[in-house]
Design brief:
10% of the residues lie in helices and 45% in strands. It has 345 residues and is mostly beta strands. The relative contact order is 0.11.
């Protein structure tokens, strides 16, 4: 009986240990660096370290295990790197090297297209392997990657285990999914756009972001139902269009895209398209979300002037905080005016 109790006690101890380990792995921490304008989520059993780059605005954030694998033939970590376009020379990886299966070939971060790459190097009995995503946001090159360093097991005495890299793709995907890059007012427009009726039956998106791809999903803050009642719609980017969605008042060249609004049978909206992966939430009759990844939620507003609407994004409460973005929609007919000068000046 005592032997049975000891065996049961042993298995219970093992089960508790596995539960604790699984819990630690599943928990996430949020890293926010307001100075560098970047935030992301990472596993709680990892640590974060920041290193400055060659240029004042360049940096590398390393995410590595708190407890590296013991008795293994190597180690791995993750890096989030920002570098000036003219100083970056990493290229697009090695075409002969393959990343793990299951990773998407492209991802959208802050409205920009990131491409999957893989690379490797070897020498002096050491092997280096890395894969991840690389893309351009504003005037900077961003890379989110997994980096692995191993040596042949026969080089070790006593023998060691093969490095367990099974968590790599999942952690990388989590970093990419949660990465937010803060944008200044001038570049915030690449993550936002005016959504308006197009040909009376469809919607279109006007934005200065010319890198959106057909099939990309975005969110729309819709004001059409009522200026004081906002809602969140989903939409899918279609093909670029050249006529029927122009904006003669824009001071910068804009790109127009056809939009498919979901769910079906939704009226064509007049609203603001959010092209980044910011999470929008509705609070009462208003929608808020951290559009520029500064750690605080922005708000949305619409008002009407004599012949059109002013659509705006604010750092806090509309009219009582900094206005971050503005777009104008010309309706072509008289509308009741309810705008403040702060909406457009």
């Amino acid at each position: 009986l005592r032997k049975i109790m000891k065996i049961n006690s042993f298995f219970i101890t093992i089960c508790i240990a596995l539960v604790l380990i699984s819990s630690a792995v599943a928990q996430q921490k949020t890293y926010v660096n307001k100075k560098r304008g970047v935030s992301f989520k990472y596993p709680s059993d990892f640590r974060v370290k920041v290193e400055e780059g060659a240029e004042p605005s360049d940096f590398t954030i390393t995410i590595s295990p708190v407890h590296p694998q013991r008795n293994s033939n190597g180690d791995y970590h993750f890096e989030v790197t920002k570098s000036a376009l003219e100083t970056n020379s990493v290229g697009n990886g090695n075409a002969a090297e393959k990343p793990p299966k299951g990773l998407a070939k492209t991802r959208i971060i802050n409205g920009a297209k990131f491409k999957l790459f893989a690379d490797s190097d070897a020498g002096a009995g050491q092997y280096f392997y890395n894969y991840g995503y690389r893309g351009t946001i504003g005037k900077s090159e961003w890379t989110i990657e997994y980096k692995e360093h191993t040596s042949p097991r026969e080089n070790f005495e006593p023998k060691v285990r093969e490095l367990n890299t099974s968590r790599g793709p999942g952690i990388l995907s989590g970093l990419v999914n949660s990465l937010r890059v803060a944008l200044g007012q001038g570049s915030l427009s690449s993550s936002l756009g005016l959504v308006r009726p197009y040909n009376e039956q469809k919607a279109c998106l006007l934005t200065d972001n010319s890198l959106l791809r057909s099939g990309q999903q975005i969110s729309v803050v819709d004001f059409e139902e009522s200026p004081r009642r906002q809602k969140i719609l989903s939409a899918v980017i279609g093909e670029k269009i050249t006529k029927g969605c122009e904006d003669a008042d824009s001071k910068v060249p804009l790109t127009a895209y056809e939009l498919t609004i979901g769910p079906p049978n939704v009226d064509v909206p007049l609203g603001i398209g959010v092209l980044s992966n910011a999470q929008l939430k509705r609070y009462g009759n208003s929608v808020r979300g951290d559009v520029n990844a500064d750690g605080s939620s922005e708000s949305f507003r619409i008002c009407w002037s004599d012949e059109g609407a002013h659509l705006t994004v604010w750092s806090g409460v509309p009219l009582m905080s900094a206005r971050l973005w503005h777009a104008y929609y010309y309706a072509g007919y008289d509308t009741p005016s309810n705008c403040s000068k702060k909406d457009y000046r």
